[in-house]
Amino acid sequence: MKKLGMLLLMLSSATVIQAEITTESIQTADRQTVAIGDRLEDMQNRMQASPIKMTSYSIPEKGLPATLAVDYTYEIANMQYVITVVDDHVSKIKTENLDGLRK
Q1: What one-character-per-residue DSSP string does 67-86 give?
Q2: 8 Å CB contact between 46 and 35
Q3: What are phi and psi of 38, to 5 degrees?
Q4: Residue 1 has pLDDT above 70, yes or no
Q5: Of 36, 49, 80, 90, which one is least surrounded by beta carbons within 10 A?
Q6: Whole-model pTM?
Q7: Which of 49, 36, 17, 31 is nearest to 92 (CA)?
């Protein structure tokens, strides 16, 4: 029974990993591009929407002060975008199609 539980946990984790994709850029509803390296202000202007959630956390670096990172979560047209900003620039973009998750 314990092995079955572990197998189910591994399979459910694999599903979550497949649903979320890291990408270099996305297109907004107005066909503007948000890409890694863009300034925070440019990203906010291009998204033309308020994020549904913002999460800030520190990224520890050995021997250096911790760096602040902020995840901006947007939901647009059944897609979820999590845009991570570090040092006032987009450093990571994750996308997830919400259609398969809401069945």
Answers
A1: EEEEEEEEEETTEEEEEEEE
A2: no
A3: -65, 150
A4: no
A5: 49
A6: 0.76
A7: 36
Does an H or E element contain 20, and which? strand 20-23
- Rounded to an integer, what distance in angstroms lies between the CA atom of residue 68 and that of residue 58? 5
pLDDT in tens, 28-83: 888 999 999 999 999 999 999 899 999 999 998 888 888 999 999 999 888 999 99
Contact between 72 and 51 (Cβ < 8 Å): yes
Q: How far is CA 4 from the centre of its chain?
A: 31
Q: Helix, strand, or coil here: 64?
A: strand
pLDDT digits (tens, 9 = 90+) for 88-103: 999 999 999 988 655 4
- Between 79 and 19, the more confident residue is 79
Q: Comparing C-alpha atoms, which of 100, 81, 87 is closest to residue 25?
A: 81
